[in-house]
Amino acid sequence: MASEQSFVDYICDQMRDARDITYRKMFGEYAIYSGKKVVALVCDNQLFVKPTPEGKAYLVDTVEAPPYLGAKPHYVIDDGIDDRHWLSHLIAITERALPDPKPKKKAIPKGEL
User: Fold this and answer.
1) What digits encode the pLDDT tens for the residues 17-65?
2) CATH of 5-97, one of 3.30.1460.30, 3.20.20.20, 3.40.640.10, 3.10.20.880
């Protein structure tokens, strides 16, 4: 079941106090970005935050599950999505803890091999 756009909009609005929140649709589900880093996924209208030691320390009770078949476990956020300050803080902590994305390699134009 694909996630609803209205749910993704709500989640992103709740995170708005964190840095530069955007999303990208991927395979019927959504990746949530803080700056250039993927910090969370929305799958089947559930929020999955990337696991970090700092995020785990912030969470009181940690429930982990894979957002989709074959994925590594993420933190499942249910109760906290309605608390804007708490959720924004979790996302800011996660964004700071994640490494910067690796630069993409430039494509070699055809004929220059």
Assistant:
1) 988 999 999 888 999 999 999 999 999 999 999 999 999 999 988 899 9
2) 3.30.1460.30
